[in-house]
Amino acid sequence: MPQPEQPHTILLVHCHYRLPGGEDAVFAAECAMLQAHGHRVITYERNNDAGGLAQKLLLPLRAIYSTKTVREVRALIRKEQVDLVHVHNTLLTISPSVFQACFKEHVPAVQTLHNFRIFCPNGILMRDGHVCEECPQHGLGCAVRHSCYRGSRAQSLVCAGIYAFHRLLGTYRKVNLITLTEFDRSKLLEFNRKASRPVFTPERLYCKPNGVAAPNHSPLPWAQRKNQIVFAGRLEELKGLRTAIEAWQLLGPDAPQLIVAGTGPLEAWAKENAPDTVTFTGQLPHGTLTELLDQSRAALCPSLCYESFALIPAEAHAVGTPVLASDLGNVGAAVQEGIDGLHFAPGNAAALADAVRKLQNVGETFDLTAMQQKACQAYNAEQNYRELMTIYREIMRNENS
């Protein structure tokens, strides 16, 4: 049987969060990748600025089902003759009702799952600083009881309501889904089996990592690297920044310099408590961050949650830089102990301090060139594009059969 043609006109859908993050970067990168390969890309984008009082009052209802989204996306599909719709984020102002537009227009739909939100309203399977799988096991009402979304019971009720409503509609059973890692895929399949009624169709679940730009030079030798370690990401509890600051307090004045790149709610606390061996740069352009990783002895990923895709480890390995990673979820799975980095117990500042000391002793034994080659083979743009097209073609074949 001949393979179905890959889609020519693709509608990419994304709702931007108030604070820019990895999902926004992936959305932009995938858009550019598809355009570079000759696809016609249409975008439907919104942000979560609710506007005036009337809009804010209506937001909870529109977050569950937006007739505006359905109307506008149906019109776009017809006008642009869209072959396939690829969704990245629907929370809050787009809403999962975007898929109803696809169903009504008989156009295949796929969503990249950047988090665990279809089972966990706060998306990260974490509560009170620890991994929590209560909602997948006992229902979305657990998130409301614990005020898991933004610390608000009202907002948690809205978020839980979105996914409860679309479970009743069976929305996600008709949508194709892409996880970013095998860890995510196995977790979602586990949760789906335990659900009283399947939330999604296992045969519609695919796995494809994000792409990472490959450098055009060999990694900088260990001896030429600056005695510094890079933490890059949102400055918040779940990323483990507090653990990092406490570890550098323990390491004392002889610690390698810790470069903290990013902004977020924990920034003020971190600056107030950080020793002189910690430097804050704010949000950095991607190219500048890549150069920083290239010059440093390690990237630091002390995450306290599973994460959805370990982007910083992938980008660090792509320039031949080892990673110090908490031994948890996708961040832990991205690092092979003693091969391309070191593990430490999540949330344990003393264990992180020990890992930093160990790195100083064993860092020069890492094969930085092999580390880079492996990462570039796994995450390079061409490989990423081929994997995405394989998924697209299978989706279109299944939809047309």
Can you offer a commentary on this structure?
- This protein is of the alpha/beta class and 401 residues long.
- It folds into 2 domains: 9-211 and 380-400, Rossmann fold (3-Layer(aba) Sandwich); 222-379, Rossmann fold.
- It is built from 16 helices and 14 strands.
- A 6-stranded parallel sheet has the order 2-1-3-4-7-8, sandwiched between helices.
- Strand 1, helix 1 and strand 2 (40-47) form a beta-alpha-beta unit.
- Helix 2 packs parallel to helix 7 (153-169) and helix 12 (311-318) packs across helix 15 (368-379).
- The longest helix is centred in the C-terminal third of the chain and has 20 residues, at 381-400.
- The chain is globular.
- It starts with 8 loop residues before the first strand and ends with a helix.
Give the gist of this structure.
The chain is of the alpha/beta class. Helices cover 44% and strands 17% of the residues.
| CATH topology assignment of the largest domain | Rossmann fold
Residue windows where pLDDT falls under 50 for at least 5 positions? none
The rough form would be described as: globular
Mean pLDDT: 92
Q: How far apart, in Å, are the first and last alpha carbons? A: 12 Å
Structural class by secondary-structure content: alpha/beta
Order of helices and strands: EHEHHEHEEEHHHEHEEHEHEHEHEHEHHH
* Number of structural domains: 2
Helix content: 40-55%
Q: Approximately how much beta-strand content do the residues carry?
A: 15-25%
Main sheet characteristics: 6 strands, parallel
Please count the helical segments.
16
Give the CATH architecture of the largest domain. Answer: 3-Layer(aba) Sandwich
For the largest sheet, list the strands in their spatial order.
2-1-3-4-7-8
Strand elements, count: 14
CATH superfamily of the largest domain: Glycogen Phosphorylase B
CATH class of the largest domain: Alpha Beta
The whole-angstrom Rg is: 22 Å
